[in-house]
TrEMBL record, chains A, B:
Name of the protein in its database record: Stage V sporulation protein S
Transmembrane intervals: none
InterPro entries named among the record's database cross-references: Alba-like_dom_sf, SpoVS
UniProt xrefs under PANTHER family: STAGE V SPORULATION PROTEIN S (PTHR35331)
Domain of life the protein comes from: Bacteria
């Protein structure tokens, strides 16, 4: 996704999911680095409705630097 | 720290700590944004020795964009 559009987005709810997401970014970062692509991530909070309940998720925007 | 040196670093071990760290970045990001400062984070893996045991930590480098 980063290679094609230069951007990706991941949303996670809960510590386990957020941890997995940030690890995925670290892994992607290392192999994209080999191709000369440098990515950074921009974390923010986002409210999402799940089963009519409001939850706060972490939104990770991944962008080329 | 970001205001003074333009850079900060956080290391975390475990899902809970990493989740806290990324939430801290999201919070810092929102108030620095009000001052016109845009920060991004660069996650990577790092091996650290704790009690002579090797552990893999997540290293979050926080930089001004």
């Amino acid at each position: 996704m980063i290679r094609e559009s230069g951007m990706a987005e991941v949303q996670s709810i809960g510590a386990g999911a957020t941890n997995q997401a940030i690890k995925a970014v670290a892994i992607a970062r290392s192999y994209l680095h080999e191709e000369g692509i440098d990515i950074v991530c921009v974390p923010s909070f986002i409210d999402v409705a799940i089963d009519e309940e409001e939850r706060t998720a972490i939104r990770l925007l991944i962008e080329r630097r």
